[in-house]
Amino acid sequence: MLTIENLSAEIDGKTILNGLTLSVGAGEVHAIMGPNGSGKSTLSYVLAGRAGYEVTGGSVTFMGKDLLAMAPHERAAAGVFLGLQYPVEIPGVSNLLFLRTALNAQRSSRGEAEATGAEFMKAAKVAAADMNLDFEMMKRSVNQGFSGGEKKRNEMIQMALLAPKLAILDETDSGLDIDALRVVSDGINRMRSPDRATLLITHYQRLLDHVQPDRVHVLMGGRIVRSGGPELALQLEAEGYAGIAAEAGLSNIMDAAA
Amino acid sequence: MTALPTLLPTRRDEAWRYADLKTLGAIWPARQQQVRSLAGAALTLDDRITGNGWTDERIEISVGEGGSLTGTIEQAMDADGVTTQLYAITLAAGARADLTLINSGGRYGRLALDISLHEGATLDLGGAIVGGSDQTLEIVTHVRHLGPNATSRQTVRAVLGGTAVGSYLGQVAVARAAQKTDAEQSFKALLLDRGATANAKPELEIFADDVKCAHGASVGELDKLALFYFESRGIPPKQAEALLAQAFVDDAITRLPEGDARAALLARLASLVSAR
């Protein structure tokens, strides 16, 4: 579904991704782990197409198409969803208006019929209830005055409604208490399906206790330096990143930060 | 600025500093200011200024003790229209006014308010300035706190494209007797294009010693991160920009009911964004 080959990218002339190669098949959940500054968020922004993140080499193919040639909203309509590490507050635009506009923009760009008001409201109510978020909050401005956990749950509500083909979740577990982590994990698990892929970007093993990944990759110095099964995450939790950094020829953990 | 000057104003006159004097100068000799007046305890105002000529009125409004004035003033003239409206409003003790100004049409649009507040009166004013091309649009207020315990809130938002000039000149005068005055002015401008200009000029003149007078002003551009967030959810860039521009003026139009004026304003914002 997603094939990243030898991808390099920079921000303000500084190289962050440096020859990253990764392939995620339909129905799979892959976890990307790595120390601070290793390029995890940059990878998610490059895949979503944020301005300022310049691709300097390599390619990304998503469902047979050149993802990098598409504008951010086209990527979304094609089925890419990015759950942000820091969801943005938008005063003056209600959650419901935002979501309905997004859903219908995606549908019309795919040549599908727009959702009626009633259909949308019904789906929004179910999605909010699944995430344990008071529906009243759906009427408020996007993320404004939301706690860290509420913002993350709101991202999951958006994901559930937009039903992407590829979900990239950037540190969706950060800022969550134990109960919220379970609610969010359940939400991610509910979305697992044979025609959907998920990329979980995380610092910690704890999300992976709830969402069992098929593959775990270690991102350091802007590339994948090690891949393995779920046991790799446990090994990292026990040993830290230093051993892998040395093995990858990065002299110390600080060099691992690109 | 109580009355419009008889002679063509100059830039030395603070209240006319950012005005389109070139346009005004060409038509000034033909000036025939109209006068209207309204008085009562429960007044509504629904002024919609249209056409392509010069609308030039002095409207005198007197709201009785404990009374109310609610309404909308919408300047939606055609491309060559000129508006120089002055609303002189007196709020008697305990009276309140809830007003929304929309200043979006014409070549030069000036909505001026001169409001006197007596004891315990309340003014809640929202103003939206939405302009493009070479329009000059102004909201000019002179709020006079004459008696104690009066409250005034002014919330003005401007969205400007092209080489448009949008100005908010807000003068608050607190008389010696007007203790416990609570006056607030907030102005924010969103510039869509490099050539657009916003002017903010809050002015305080305070003679009482126990008052609260706050003012804030900011000028900025569309938030790039917010735009990316919208686009990452599948909303095309122009639609995202229009939504954000509409959200920007939201604080200024909270009193504006659903209806033609609101719909026209939101449509104007969307077209301003897509024209770029």
TrEMBL record, chain A:
Pfam (any one): ABC_tran
MF (Gene Ontology): ATP binding; ATP hydrolysis activity
ABC transporter domain location: 2-246
Protein keywords: ATP-binding, Nucleotide-binding
PROSITE patterns for this protein: ABC_TRANSPORTER_1, ABC_TRANSPORTER_2
Leader sequence segment: none
Protein family per UniProt: Belongs to the ABC transporter superfamily. Ycf16 family.
PANTHER family to which the protein is assigned, alphabetical: ABC TRANSPORTER I FAMILY MEMBER 6, CHLOROPLASTIC
Name under which the protein is recorded: Fe-S cluster assembly ATP-binding protein
Organism the protein comes from: Polymorphobacter multimanifer
Automatic annotation (TrEMBL), chain B:
Highest taxon of the lineage: Bacteria
Residue span, SUF system FeS cluster assembly SufBD core domain: 46-248
Pfam families per UniProt: SUFBD_core (PF01458)
Any one GO biological process: iron-sulfur cluster assembly
Protein name: Fe-S cluster assembly protein SufD
Species this protein is from: Polymorphobacter multimanifer
